[in-house]
Design brief:
Strand order of the largest sheet: 1-2-9-6-11-5-4-3
Strand content: 15-25%
Shape: globular
Number of strands: 13
Oligomer: single chain
CATH architecture: Sandwich
Largest sheet: 8 strands, mixed
């Protein structure tokens, strides 16, 4: 089973447990990191942003039939500062990525009713740091905005596969179908509740499953890099000067971003063509 860390009374998250989970299974979680009111606010903000994105050319990128990804401006959600400064998020980033980690991306996935199985994949090709140096240099944090049930197309992951060599992987991301049996044998479906957080290596083989319910399943994504990783090149993190100045220095030092007078539309550079059609 993958590692789930219960929130301690004191904020003394164990570095060995964090590293063991992410270097082992490739995913860990914290239950009840935020209360349900906070998660409900996040859900309302995401729903508003999704409606806006669908009306804007290029605002919502297809990640399969009835499935979208939207990259956003952090200040458009009420809880960004809470998330960026959450003690568990900070502890995980420092343990795995080092004290100079950088937040490079924030967005959300929305599998709508009727979304189909995605092909098994990584979010981007494994870097040399991982293939040769055996080091994880980026993490993705996920927060559901709804309680997830089995019929809602839960996220599915094959633990330990962040270390798999990409032999025969299309674009370095999509393994051949001859390997699907390995992933299905290892597969774990995740059924988080509002307020839970997970952290994973985006290299661990995973997929979204078919949403057979009548509800959408939005999930926030926060992308974080170690020094030397270049995932910021795929994104355009922006803050207005007025909002940026409200953030504490402890958050400032972990941002790779532009500070602007007025927010500019985000042109999403991280499209994943192999996900557009869903699983064949």
């Amino acid at each position: 089973m993958s590692t789930t860390i219960q929130a301690p009374i004191r904020q003394d998250f164990d570095t060995a447990a964090i590293m063991g989970g992410l270097y082992g299974d490739g995913i860990i979680g914290l239950k009840g990191a935020f209360d349900r009111r906070w998660a409900q606010d996040l859900h309302e903000d995401v729903e508003d942003l999704f409606r806006e994105a669908l009306l804007r050319p290029g605002g919502a990128v297809g990640r399969g039939p009835k499935r979208y990804y939207v990259e956003i401006h952090p200040e458009r959600i009420r809880g960004f500062a809470d998330l960026a400064a959450h003690p568990w998020v900070v502890a995980v980033c420092e343990a795995v990525l080092g004290p100079e980690y950088k937040i490079v991306e924030i967005g959300f996935d929305v599998p709508l009713p009727g979304a189909v199985h995605q092909p098994w994949h990584r979010d981007f090709p494994a870097p040399e740091d991982t293939l040769v140096g055996r080091r994880l240099n980026s993490l993705a944090f996920n927060l559901t905005t709804v309680d997830v049930y089995e019929d809602m197309g839960p996220f599915e992951i094959a633990p330990g596969t962040q270390w798999d060599a990409p032999d025969g992987f299309e674009h370095g991301m999509f393994p051949p179908k001859s390997l699907y049996g390995r992933y299905e044998q290892r597969a774990q479906q995740k059924l988080p509740r509002m307020g839970d957080i997970s952290a994973r290596s985006a290299l661990t083989i995973h997929r979204g499953t078919a949403n057979r319910s009548d509800k959408s399943r939005p999930a926030l994504v926060l992308g974080v890099d170690a020094p030397g990783a270049n995932n910021a090149e795929r994104h355009d993190l922006q803050f207005t000067r007025a909002y940026y100045e409200t953030l504490p220095e402890s958050v400032h030092r972990h941002l790779t971003c532009r500070v602007v007078e007025t927010l500019e539309p985000i042109v999403q550079a991280h499209t994943i063509e192999g996900l557009v059609m869903g699983e064949a």
